[in-house]
């Protein structure tokens, strides 16, 4: 015989956590059309799941042609950056319940880069700017017999900019980059900052000279879009300002 407690427990388990959510995805297939178009998908999903889970459900159960990048699915690789409801976010870190699932969830590729297919953009110009700032330790002299030591205070000087995962959320949120793809962009400047202020590095002057170019750090208009978009919480605008200050004061 069922007790009142057992009946209540059964009633709770009968309530499904799933809701119907509309994903409005900007589709583009160069083999079919020169124009992008919006396509709606209605899926049943737990609102505590992520936008990436919704995209997986669409691709695996509804339309296998939907194309997007993703890898670790834990906010580390940065490969699934996209515009979700008009803002740059990582799909793997964005919960359905946090973006008003009662309205269509719009998903589109990040801006300022050539769209290859659906949510996939050409990242090569972004990575070229990253390579151009020499994002690696440069030293001279003989190879050390042990690791190069650094004080906690010296490490703290550039700690914030070591968090970059190269997702391009900051760069593709920059109005200057939208209108001029030659601009290095916030991510490249952040990664230059990481080595410019590293006490073990000896190529700060070279990087500053690279960023002193017409397409370099002076193109920044301090709109704070990059800082708002960063999924790692990096103070991008502050880092750019510190590079500008270093350029102004380096001769004195």
SSE layout and pairing:
Blueprint: H1 4-13, E1 19-27, E2 37-45, H2 51-62, E3 81-84, E4 87-90, E5 105-108, E6 115-117, E7 120-121, H3 124-132, H4 152-156, H5 175-179, H6 186-196, H7 204-211, H8 225-229, H9 236-249
Parallel strand pairs: 1-5
Antiparallel strand pairs: 1-2, 3-4, 3-5, 6-7
Features:
single chain; 9 helices; Ubiquitin-like (UB roll); 252 residues; Fumarate Reductase Iron-sulfur Protein, Chain B, domain 2
Write up what this structure looks like.
By secondary structure, this protein is an alpha+beta fold. The protein folds into 2 domains: 16-121, Roll (Ubiquitin-like (UB roll)), CATH 3.10.20.30; 124-138 and 153-249, Alpha-helical ferredoxin (Fumarate Reductase Iron-sulfur Protein, Chain B, domain 2). The protein is built from 9 helices and 7 strands; from the N terminus they run αββαβββββααααααα. Helix 6 packs across helix 9. The protein starts with a helix and ends with a helix.
